[in-house]
Design goal:
single chain
Length: 414
């Protein structure tokens, strides 16, 4: 049966994109689906920042599937036998309620786990895109999807430093253990041609003035988020060195652009300014970030897939460093809002002062950013201004967002 379904697939590539409903992952998917040949499988568990609306134009009544027999559900029996099952049952109820809320505007096909491979291939025979609601920590799901994929692009991660300071638990589980599960699936599926691990510039830690980190520089993470990403980064390198699996690591600088969850600095400042609410700025506001427009970043990753060397690391920077206070003032200027909306707050614990990358290596492959920061910021502000339904749905209705904002900003002393 599967031979007949997969016949004719060989000329094109099948990409498995983990975290494809997130900010960066969804932009990569949108770019790839412009190619008439490529097929995309997204694997995303739709945690708080995962959003089907990010891929709304590609979703239909056939291509969203949810395998019910996932690892979290199987764990109930184990906990039950140990008479310690109440928390796990609550967790499963939470997952189902969360997914039900996230998918309420979409038709989802529920399937048995043993139907997953055949179902995905049947959908890809008819169209280029299928969305699988699933957890990267479920090895049964990852093994099945790796078996039918040519290239893996691993975006799935917990990514917000502030959240990691409050509670690092999900960062350790998703970023480290989740990556380990994917690497084990990679080791078992020799058909995968390349595994692209999306790391971050934050693994290097703060850059001294005048220094831009090269790929060969030591990593020195300073907060729970960057430590979890550094661990995953080095785990990928270790699996390549030990098992010879085809891994490439990319380390992008700070991304910004449309569809970014509004807890991050730029979308938070834009949306707060649109609502005439304060822009909470940490410390003296002079922390420096190198801002990279998300479209440029995803183009870079696509080029690395095409031309990058297995086993290598590639920095993706923009050389567009700017202080946070200048970024905030620029947003207010674009929106014609008063500068007194900026409200200085107590600095974040362990706040890295500056990030900076040397990206000559990927420049050598023929890539450079096309969108400078001022133009990219104007495009981003315009998008949030014209797509208020997208972010208001999050800020006004998401309990996860409200809980975090209340905990982390409203209670902070100026």
């Amino acid at each position: 049966m599967l031979d007949s379904i997969t016949r004719g697939f060989k000329k094109a590539k099948t990409f498995l994109v983990t975290g494809g409903a997130g900010f960066m992952g969804s932009e990569f998917v949108r770019q790839k689906l412009k190619n008439l040949n490529d097929r995309i499988i997204v694997l995303d568990f739709l945690t708080y920042a995962g959003n089907l609306d990010n891929l709304k134009e590609f979703l239909n009544e056939e291509n969203i599937i949810f395998p019910l027999e996932q690892e979290a559900i199987l764990n109930v029996k184990r906990y039950w036998e140990n008479e310690n099952f109440s928390y796990e049952i609550e967790r499963i109820d939470y997952d189902f309620e969360r997914i039900r809320y996230k998918t309420k505007d979409y038709k989802v096909t529920l399937i048995r786990l043993n139907e997953l491979q055949e179902k995905v291939l049947e959908i890809l025979k008819k169209q280029k895109f299928v969305f699988v609601i699933g957890n990267i920590m479920d090895k049964k799901i990852t093994n099945i999807l790796f078996n039918i994929s040519d290239i893996i692009v691993h975006y799935a991660a917990e990514t917000h430093v502030d959240r990691s300071i409050i509670d690092a638990d999900s960062f350790i589980k998703t970023d480290i253990y989740g990556t380990y599960i994917l690497l084990e699936s990679l080791r078992k599926n020799k058909n995968v041609e390349k595994f692209i691990h999306v790391s971050t510039d934050e693994v290097y830690g703060p850059a001294p003035e005048g220094v831009s980190f090269k790929e060969t520089d030591p990593i020195n993470p300073k907060n729970p988020y960057s430590a979890s990403k550094a661990s995953a980064d080095r785990l990928c390198s270790a699996y390549h060195n030990t098992y010879g699996v085809p891994i490439i690591i990319v380390r992008p600088s700070n991304n910004y652009g449309p569809y970014q969850y509004p807890e991050k600095a730029i979308p938070l400042f834009i949306t707060n300014a649109l609502e005439d609410k304060p822009l909470p700025l940490y410390g003296d506001g002079k922390n420096v970030r190198d801002w990279l427009y998300v479209e440029d970043c995803c183009r870079a990753i696509d080029l690395v897939i095409e031309k990058g060397e297995i086993g290598e690391v590639y920095n993706i920077g923009a050389s567009q460093e700017i202080q946070n206070i200048k970024m905030a003032n620029k947003i207010l200027e674009i929106l014609n809002k008063p500068k007194d909306l900026i409200k200085f707050t107590k600095d974040r614990l362990g706040h890295d002062r500056r990030y900076s990358l040397n990206w000559n290596k990927i420049k050598g492959l023929g890539w450079k950013p096309e969108i400078d920061f001022e133009i990219g910021l104007e495009k981003t502000v315009k998008w949030y201004k014209e797509n208020q339904e997208w972010w208001r749905k999050i800020k006004e209705k998401s309990l996860e967002y409200k809980k975090f904002y209340q905990l982390y900003y409203n209670r902070r002393k100026e």
